[in-house]
Automatic annotation (TrEMBL):
Keywords: ATP-binding, NAD, Nucleotide-binding, Nucleotidyltransferase, Pyridine nucleotide biosynthesis, Transferase. PANTHER family: NICOTINATE-NUCLEOTIDE ADENYLYLTRANSFERASE-RELATED, PHOSPHOPANTETHEINE ADENYLYLTRANSFERASE. Its EC number is 2.7.7.18. NCBIfam families: nicotinate (nicotinamide) nucleotide adenylyltransferase (TIGR00482), PRK00071.2-2 (NF000843), PRK00071.2-4 (NF000845), PRK00071.2-5 (NF000846). It comes from the Bacteria. Residues 26-188 form the Cytidyltransferase-like domain. This is Probable nicotinate-nucleotide adenylyltransferase. One of its GO terms (biological process) is NAD+ biosynthetic process. InterPro entries: Cyt_trans-like, NadD/NMNAT, Rossmann-like_a/b/a_fold. Catalyzes the reversible adenylation of nicotinate mononucleotide (NaMN) to nicotinic acid adenine dinucleotide (NaAD). Pathway: Cofactor biosynthesis; NAD(+) biosynthesis; deamido-NAD(+) from nicotinate D-ribonucleotide: step 1/1. Belongs to the NadD family.
């Protein structure tokens, strides 16, 4: 089945409420499980990027990860809502609705159907370090501005990565972060100052169950 398969009448139902002109941060991930670092990153981005909302895009599965221990989508969605606990953070199952696991297809769908919104893709420094392995990563960078949140000790590895080097001339100074949503892509900023270092991997037991849950 093509990754571009879309069921148009359901797409709008999977997209959180919004109004024309909103500045929306997009944070994709498996959220297996969601945790306080996801919330902290989102709130940090809301402030530093002057965003109106952050949408958590809970993926059906990550092509770069082993998905054998992935919890059911509904369970991850509900857990994400519980952790978010902020009216500015919305949880979406869009990628399940459009039947893709690839960020480029998600971004294409959002930009095509919601052209009046200004999107920013949010990722941690650990993801920038492997961004060159993502499907059509250059097209992603060319379609939506990106905010990279520093996650020590990943800083050097991230900024020395192939993608960071290839996109170096499009990097904004950190003190211009509030302008990112208005910049045409490619444009990106590396945001420092957030020191949380939780990870979903660290919150899973060897059998895939979530720590703290039976």
């Amino acid at each position: 089945m093509s990754n571009n398969f879309v069921v148009p009448r359901f797409v709008a139902q999977a997209v959180p409420p919004h109004t024309e002109g909103m500045r929306i941060g997009l944070l994709g991930g498996s959220f297996n499980p969601p945790h306080q670092a996801h919330r902290a990153i989102s709130r940090f981005a809301l402030q530093r990027l002057q965003l109106d909302r952050v949408w958590w895009l809970v993926t059906p599965g990550n092509p770069l990860k082993e998905n054998g221990n992935l919890h059911e989508l509904g369970e991850r969605m509900q857990a994400a809502r519980d952790v978010a606990d902020d009216p500015r953070i919305e949880v979406s199952c869009l990628e399940s609705v459009i039947r893709t696991r690839y960020t480029i297809d998600t971004i294409n769908t959002l930009r095509r159907r919601f052209s009046g919104l200004r999107f920013v893709w949010i990722m941690g420094a650990d993801n920038l370090a492997q961004f060159h392995r993502w499907q059509d990563w250059r097209r992603i960078a060319g379609q939506v501005p990106m905010a990279v949140i520093d996650r020590p000790p990943q800083s050097f590895r991230a900024l020395a990565s192939p993608a960071a080097q290839a996109l170096a001339r499009y990097r904004l100074p950190e003190n211009k972060a509030a302008l990112l949503a208005d910049r045409p892509a490619p444009a990106w900023v590396f945001l420092t100052g957030l020191k949380l270092n939780l990870s979903s991997t660290g919150l899973r037991n060897p059998d895939g169950s979530w720590k703290g849950k039976m």
